[in-house]
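Standup, Tuesday
Yesterday: got the pipeline producing structure tokens again.
Today: sanity-check two examples.
Blockers: none.

Example 1:
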Amino acid sequence: MPLVWPTLRYFRPTEFGDADVCAQLDAELLVTLDALRGMLGVPLVIHTGAITAARAETADSQHPKGRAVDCSAPDLTLLDFWLYAERFPAFRGVGLYPHWPRPGLHLDTRPTTVRARWWRDASGRYAEVTPATLALIHDLAEGRP
């Protein structure tokens, strides 16, 4: 288990799954999630932490490497949550998922200098984040088709 757990203010290993999952999680990811939670001032719900490569949807998934979580901030709009997460350079992979039962983000600490951004539409297709995407996500949050 990463030695960083005792330094975290807001998260405990039980929120990320079993001991095997917790042992795989990247310290940079955990510290940055904790800082994000502190900035937000509202709880974050962790949906998925480290998973096996067999469960990963894509070959380059950061979940099996312990560098990714899928999470939501129920007290914030998805766009507000995304804007806060974007303030943290350690999140070098940021995916928006407006069609999850609880809309949320994928956040990862992949080893790259170029940030990856994407979103997943209602049919499961992945695409780049554009101004039109953000307008669509805003409309979804407002209950407009």
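Example 2:
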Amino acid sequence: MSPIQIVGLAVFAVAMWTGVGYVIGLVSGWHELARAYRGVRFDGARWQFQSGQMRLLMNAHNVLMIDVDPQGLYLATILLFRVGFPPLHIPWQDISVKPGKLLFWNYVEFRFRQAPGVFLQLSADLARKMAVEAGDAWPVDRGAALPF
């Protein structure tokens, strides 16, 4: 392979990675969330390499980073998948939660006031840990209580 072919292949690979990340961020609703909740990292309790599901069956397998404190929820993807997924900081007052079950998977669905067509489903086990860290700010009054 010539140097020009190698550079061309590298440019193509980066363009594909960027394009696919952007499209997935758009289809999943992450871009809609980013318009309302683009945020910066804070120092709450952190769970890395988490999985979740968003609209249109867009799954995030082991790429989510979730921080929680009494002020809100911070969502990001690991750095390798950050293209198309800017970090988010969502205040608890804009979140409602509702437990659900699909076959053997107990989950909690998060809905967002400023992006009502978007949801995020996380495991009920993770949501319980998040609720502890959020304390009284946990949005039980704006959705169903967790199935503890």
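Quick observation on example 2: Residues 3-28 form the longest helix (26 residues). The radius of gyration is 17 Å.
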